[in-house]
Amino acid sequence: MNGIEILVQEHDAILRMLQVIRKASMKVMKGEEIIHEDFLKMADFVANYADGLHHGKEEKFLFQHMLEELGQMGKNLITHGMLVEHDLGRLYMSELKAALSRVREGDEESRLDVIANAVGYANLLSRHIEKENSVVFPFAQRSLKPEILAEVDQRSAEFEKEQESKGLQHHYLTMLAELEVKYQ
Ligand SMILES: [Fe+2]
Ligand SMILES: [Fe+2]
Prior knowledge:
single chain; mainly alpha; Four Helix Bundle (Hemerythrin (Met), subunit A); 0% strand; binds fe (ii) ion
């Protein structure tokens, strides 16, 4: 798999977690007790798999080249589109964690903020992924020079290996599968 194919494959795993997040939020909406441990696992997956592993590779290996090589159009697409959305996703997650703490302390109204930030994140990321798969990645593939794409592939492969040696992918994909059984 080349670097971009790996990113697309990770999108599939992230989309599955977004479904889990929506299902868990639905339970909160129906008045069920919030299982903090599960929400913290979802936030952990988002922080370390979706953001750390996946957005990390996009930002460091691919988007950086698009910014440098693809003129104003590349700049607009990356700086005002993709990077802003990565940041907005981080904001939703920090608000979600703050809301979870308030609920834990007995603040009933903050259940609303748990739902709002969890669902807001899921909607943002699913639109973001759709844009990357259909516009941003194809643009990179047809516009970046072959030697640059080869460099993206090489750096992605090295990074993947490094993370695999720590067991990161296995850990988070197992966590995803376990949560899917609970929230389907
Ligand atoms: Fe992204
Ligand atoms: Fe992505």
